[in-house]
Protein 1
Amino acid sequence: FTIIIIFTSIILILTSLLIINILIVNKTYKEGKTFLTNNYTMEVTSSYYTNVDAKSSYINTSDNMYLIISINVKNNNTSKKTLNLNDFRLKIKDKKYYPSNKLCNKVSDLGKCYDNNIITKDNKNYLIMYQIPKESVNKKMFLYMKKSHEYESLITKIYSRLSIKNDIKAYMWIFKVQR
């Protein structure tokens, strides 16, 4: 009887740890859901794929697409803060992609690109741009944002994980038809 109680206790503890890990520690947020980091309140409001600019010209001629993510961000701190774009990474399968905002001004019709702007206590929308292979379009992808710089000495960084929607992209695609 004691063995059954011990075994049941171990199963309950492991199950509780798994639930806490999935629902709290490694929670995956969806587009449109607000989440907190140590310094900011953030929300990914929308995302777009494109390979053309605001004037319907190709951004580049390679086999790449651009994922543009619109974020709403507010500073929760009293000191002036800027976002570090190196803290944002996009993961598609086992590959990681980092923001490449150098061409972001080409999609200015979608919003204002983030360019080391000071984040204030007011909500502001900015665009972050990723160059990804065309074959990655509509694959399952996650955006990771570092929650804090207080854990720099840890081997595993603490990130917020956000699922990028793929189901609404079909009508948002902006393609130029080749002739």
Protein 2
Amino acid sequence: LLCFIMILIISLGIRVIKFENSERYRKYSEREKDLNTKIYYLEKAEYMDSKNFEVYLDRGDLYFNLWKITGDKEYLNKSISDYNRVIYLNPYSTNGYKRLALIYEETGNYQMAEKMYLKLIEIYPNKKLYNLEIARFYKKIGENEKFRYYYQISKKLKGVNIEEGILIDEIEKWIELQK
């Protein structure tokens, strides 16, 4: 029993060290300005701990922005792959679902966008921002009944913080302009 406890403690210690090293490289990438060096640090972070979903979120953001700048579909596919990895590692990561919803919406894959927005609502049904985002999505694609449903729900909810309040205001203004 003592041997088992020692092995368990050592394996947990190794896991913590791997995660800390991964986070260290991820933080290096955040401070870096050179694109190739950013990618290098994120790859090192992934190598240190392939279960650190924040690495894939950061790299997905990087590839998404590169796609927006260059239009290169390879970057788009890499960002989708990284965001899917985020969701695989942390099924409750709203950031992964939200980013995928935005990508699918922007690329015209409304069926997948809807699936991602609905997953946000499934995870956090009482979050005003997510209800407003899916309402905006439905308004955009002309699904007025679904729009009204989620918009009415959002009216009963409150924002959580200042940043969310700003986003809520922007979405509500966009909705008002569509009338």
Protein 3
Amino acid sequence: RDIRAALDAMDCGCRALRNNRLALAERCFTRALALHPRWHDALQRRALVRHERLNLRGAIADYRKALQSCPECHWCWSYLADVHRDAGNHRGAKECLDAALLLASRKEQSPQLQEDCAQYRLDRGRTRLALGQPRQALPDFEERVYEHALNNLLWHRAGAEVRRARRLVALMAGPKMGF
């Protein structure tokens, strides 16, 4: 009986989320979690809704609970990084992206996972730029390990950030002496 009610609440939340009815979605996921407090999928979806509704503390708490039940979920680490970044905690975002990349790199490489890893690297490069670490950001922008991602638009979109990181690294190195 509890399982049926939790599944109904989860289904209600997913429908509400698809229709961008965020308040209803959050209530439905909360109802599912009242019946099954450690349900990873419900925690992850409620965290997503809370992030969208700018309840960053609630989103962080839910992602942390979701990661307690499934610490190998690289998506949760990535989404938690997004919340940290939106909260202005770039160091926390970088740590989460490091975890996401480590976990994803351990899995069998499918095209989707390659694209996820490319996105995590791009996000980590952006985060390192925000932390004032252009030298460390460059390898994330220039990584060519994931062949599938080379033709992906997200690498083309990163062009301005790569140029910015290169300029900052060059400025840090000082003027070049031409002989």
